[in-house]
Amino acid sequence: MKKNIGNVLALYPTPLVVIGAMVDGKPNWLLAGHVGIIGHDHVMVSLASGHYTNQGIRESGKLSINLVDEALLAKADRSGCVSGSKEDKSGLFDYSLSETGVPMISDAPVVMVCSVEDIYKTKGFESFICTIDQTCAEETVLNEEGKIDYHTLKPVLFEMPTYEYLRTGEVIGKCMSFGKQSENR
Predict the structure, then answer these.
(1) Tens digit of pLDDT per residue, the chain (185 long)?
(2) Is 147 left (phi over 0), alpha (psi -120 to 50) or beta?
(3) Measuring CA to CA, how many Å separate 147 from each of 38, 113, 137, 170?
(4) What is the reported pTM?
């Protein structure tokens, strides 16, 4: 029998990312655990309303989503420990600017540059509905077809209820293969 544990968000773990945005003319970085897919070319980045980064995103309508691997984890974690309103985090990462002026972490294996289409507000949160303008990936994490190889990339996962970082696991099978197997029985 299942026990009702309330309205707990049970969709974790999720890839850990650092959001980049220009705030007052400087890059600012924010560790984010609330990022979701809402289509093949759209994502949602949900940030607490009080975050310093939000003002830069609202002003420019742009942000970057920088995937975190283990090599980037210590600096990524630091970006979530202090507010940009209290500490200048512009020098935390080596970065470059996209063609549209969005800061991208140079050492992030994969970066998505996004344009904000809409902002959906809920109690205490601003959810930025974004179009993915471009995705930039290190060649070392691409397979022969030029697609991201998550066996090589191995993004860090974030688990919300315990606030733990996890490693990605092993492959258990191909999508839509289990259903076909049981169909033949």
Answers:
(1) 999 989 888 888 999 999 999 999 999 999 998 999 999 999 999 999 999 999 999 999 999 999 999 999 999 999 999 999 999 999 999 999 999 999 999 999 999 999 999 999 999 999 999 999 999 999 999 999 999 999 999 999 999 888 999 998 888 888 888 887 655 55
(2) beta
(3) 20, 17, 9, 19
(4) 0.93
